[in-house]
Amino acid sequence: MVSAPPTLRLMSKLRLIATLTLALATANTLAAADGAKLTRGPYLQLATNSSTTIVWRATGATKPVVRYGTAPDKLDQTVDAAAIATRGAADLPPIDKSTPLHSAPNGTRQYEAVISGLEPNSTYYYSVSDGNRLLAGGDAEHRFRTHPQVGTKAPFRFWVVGDSGTGDDTQKSVYAGVRNYLASDGQRPLDLYLHVGDMAYPKGTDDEFQRKFFDIYQPTLRNTVCWAAMGNHEGYTSKGTSGIGPYYDAYVCPKRAEAGGLPSTTEAFYSFDYANVHFICLDSHDLDRSPAGVMAQWLRADLERTKADWIVAFFHHPPYTKGSHDSDKEGSLIEMREQIMPILEAGGVDVVLTGHSHIYERSMLIDGAYHTPTVAKGVILDDGDGSPEGEGPYRKSAGIHPHEGAVQIVTGNGGAKLSRKGTSPVMRTVVVEHGSVLIDVADDTLTGIMVNRLAERRDLFQIVKRGTVTPQIVAAPRVLPPFSLPVKNTSVDAKGEPVLPAGAVSIIDRHAEWEYLAGSHPVGEAWKLFDFIPPTPWPVSQAGFGYGDDDDATVLKNMQSKFSVVYIRNEFELDIGERERITDLGLAINYDDGFIAYLNGHEVLRVGVMQGSGAKATKITSHNPKGYEYHSLKEAIKYLQDDDNILAIEGHNNRIASSDFSLDPYLVAVKKPKP
Amino acid sequence: MTSRIVDSSHAQSCRHAPCAVGRSASSLSAILFVTALWIAAIALPLRAHDGPEHVIEALSAEMARSGTSAELLYRRAIEYRALRDWAHAEADLNAALVLSPDDSVSTIELARILIRQPSKAFHAALLIDGLQRRFELIEPRPAFYADLVGLEAELNCECKAWEEAVAAFSEAIALRGDTAWYLLRSRAQAHLPEQRQSQLAGLRSGYTTTQSPVLLRELCDALLSPADESSAAERREAAEIVEEELAANRYRSAWLLRRAQLHTLAGRSADAEADLREALAELAPRIHPTRPDVDLVIQRGTARALLGQVAEARADLRQAEWAHAPDWMLAPLVEALGDRTAPTAVSPDD
Ligand SMILES: [Fe+2]
User: Fold this and answer.
1) CB within 8 Å: B29 and A307
2) Are the C-beta atoms of residues A107 and A91 closer than 8 Å to each other?
3) How far is the CA of A282 from the centre of ligand 1 (A)?
């Protein structure tokens, strides 16, 4: 074959390029010169036993294509273009009749693709592309499993997270904790993810959602639907009445009973079915919580209709808590208890999941606890621990029945700073530790656990619904001991109490919980700073730390002859204006043999460590404690900051083989009275 | 648009209805997020973890240190609101508006609190009217304008200005078809006998649009009310709804009561009685002995009244009133008792 003359070939080439350019411009007129860039997702939303929704965002207009199939390398189906809704950021020209994105970055388009006609309880794989250019997927991680048929008793597992949206290492380590737990032998993967609100601090903006929710949970979001409830922090930018805001842009929730239940007509509250469980999500933040409100009326109708074996309700504001919030004092919490709980319990609710209060609290089996303040008398149907490994599961009749008892779980421990005010009298377990909740449902048995940052199980309860159980109120229920802040700043006495300045109050309580590192050394100096992200989370335990002298709340059994340094950190906060009122600051500490204290990264006190620090510390003098000693930190007041502060201490033993070790500090201050 | 908020002479007759206040609060809150002014105003660190009392302390300290400002006062008012300390919330909002008279967010929040107090309805009306006038000239109107109109309608309901309320709800629905507004418009129309057909038409279209079970119930009740106005066709329409719901639901008492009503209208008293007794049997385990859901108490009271158990029905009425059930919720029970009280109103304990 004779080749064409060069000029002709060149011309053909030019024509070819021109044609191609033209074709591209016609087929994809909106395509930016540099192509589309994926900015969020893809992630799963609203799913049923025959459909699922895949959502993603891109900048630079794309020709959205979703392929799916039964194996990652066999994506032989394509979603019809008509089933992909497109929404644009406010700066883009209006797209059909879609609601513009509330506050997405300029140039952003959000695509919401509905894949329908699927088989129930089946795994599919998917990819999203811009025309023929793959944006994400086509691998084992981008997959979804359709819901089982409603009523199926097949076992499944869901994950519950609350108050996570800090974007910091604590949030990440809670996530890592549950992922490590799930990765351990024989663990079932997640089928669902529930978020009980406060997922993007502090104001639930579009950017905060991106950084503190999507960027962090993406490995789960791409293959597990997150069903969300709105928290008060999302409420700064999103509103339940109008369904507008970054929260409502992020989630596609059922409004018309797409996944079971009755139509709520709003994404702010809704219900759905999964296997034999009916899930109900309420908006406890900014909608009417009165018994005459639309939400309550819908809730009654929805409860009257469901024929599931289990009812699980979730929302943000806890009806019972004494964590960072108090359910006896705050309006939304009181109303959820007094006005919504009677409806839920008359409808036969089994489990109520909430957050808002930054703590983990889990109740006994209770019913009818609607009074304010909450009391234990007359409301506890089983005062046991509910543990199949302890006093046995809570028992209810098979099926759903009114007022046979519910378990309340407050899991506001997903990332935000923890605190505790007291003990709600209906609680059986209170853990001031970060973590999240896993719940397994298998036919007539529901098992819940709390998993901490170290992938350890920190609570276990079970409800078994079998036969007929007649609920009986426990006349004199066992309740948890009252909680009180431990420090009373008495003067010195023979028992080793420190001499504190007059009027000193604790900033970090005696026997508070600290993060600690024992048995290895932290890399670099970052561990002394607030923003420190450890490669693996440090465990959290109560001070003091040590061994050998019977005075340690946290006994370091392996320390003797193995290592001689223990590192501890405690974050504390100062309210607006509080820093200025502090006139004296000091450390009360029981130590053996030496320590170095750092406030916000600055060394502020060194006792008994004559040279170096950390692994390089030498010349540690011996010290036999007689109790707490007081050391003034007046010179360190200047290092205090508004809001977040960190006190970090390294404790040293003078000999590795020493027979004992102690490190037991607390921080006190003298404050001017409030103006 | 001409604002339909009524004047102070009406406002004086406003009756405090706790549940209506909740509704007002909800539709108003939608307005808050749009106002850029407010978003920009929050320069203080918004802390993720403090109870309202701590935030109030912190804000007070901040104001003591660096002086008051509209933003700080607004923030503190919101925290007082969370604690249901309405007096302090109102005082802070008033103070915020002295410093920043054009702040629409504080204005709305204040109106929302004033609505709770009958004596201050006129003040609330002035605030809402002023805001509407400000935003009605802006093109396109902000998304929250619908909420302002809805709020105006709710205020008119508070003041029993039913025609004005209906007009405002219709305008709000045209802007955004909220289930609550369909429902409240129907409730307002129930006070206007000449609007019965328009009430039914509005509910039918509301149900068709939203599929809300709440509107379906309202439609069914409106079809049968008042009984002497209800046509044979309307009763058939109601009966179809009732039978479908009875077949579909696990708990059926609410629909058994409606079917009993249909039986009674058709003169089938034995069938009515059977349904009422079945409803009572189903209600018994659902009603918590000390603090039940008020809706269930009203259902029980209604069934009891219709079965002639007047003293028990009255006790249920008292319990429902004590729980602040609004008039529209109490209506079936009051009506059922109304039929019975005249001849038997001799119960010694009443
Ligand atoms: Fe919260």
Assistant:
1) no
2) yes
3) 14
CATH 1.25.40 in chain B is located at: 1-138
Query: Has domain A29-146 been given CATH number 1.10.10.60?
Result: no
**Nearest residue of B to residue A347 by CA position?**
B286
- Of B49, B84, B294, nearest to A331 by CB-CB distance is B84
Residue B330 is encoded by which pair of tokens? 């109490």
Q: For residue A123, what are the contacts with CB-CB under 8 A and spacing of at least 6? A: A70, A143, A144, A145
**Under a CB-based contact definition with an 8 Å cutoff, are residues B6 and B161 in contact?**
yes
Greatest mean pLDDT range, A393-402, A629-638, B69-78: A393-402
Residue appearing with tokens 């007059």 = A502
Q: What is the pLDDT of residue A487?
A: 36
List the domain boundaries for chain A: 29-146, 149-465, 505-671
CATH class of the region A505-671 = mainly beta
**How are beta strands A365-366 and A380-382 bridged, if at all?**
antiparallel
- Superfamily name and number for A149-465: Metallo-dependent phosphatases (3.60.21.10)
pLDDT, tens digit, 9 for 90 and up, residues B183-210: 999 999 999 999 999 999 999 999 999 9
The residue among A408 and B143 whose pLDDT is bigger is A408
Question: Residue B11 above 50 pLDDT?
Answer: no
Nearest-angstrom CA–CA distance, B206 and A307: 27
Query: Do β-strands A609-611 and A554-555 pair in parallel, antiparallel, or remain unpaired?
Result: unpaired
Cβ contact B49–A324 (<8 Å):
yes
Closest CA to B226 of B268, B196, B195: B196
| Assigned CATH for B1-138 | 1.25.40
**Chain B hits for A258, Cβ within 8 Å:** none
User: Given CA atoms B109, B112, B113, B119 in this order, what sign does their dihedral have?
Assistant: positive
Q: What is the pLDDT of residues A95-124, one digit of tens each?
A: 877 888 999 999 999 999 999 999 999 999
Q: Is A419 on the interface with B (CB under 8 A)?
A: yes
Binding-face residues of A in 270-289 toward B, CB within 8 A? 286-289
Residue reference for tokens 């008892």: A405
Least confident span in A288-297, A360-369, A514-523, B43-52: B43-52
Least confidently predicted of A14-18, A269-273, A293-297, A454-458: A14-18
Give a three-class secondary structure readout of A601-633: CEEEEEECEEECCHHHCEEECCCCCCCCEEEEC
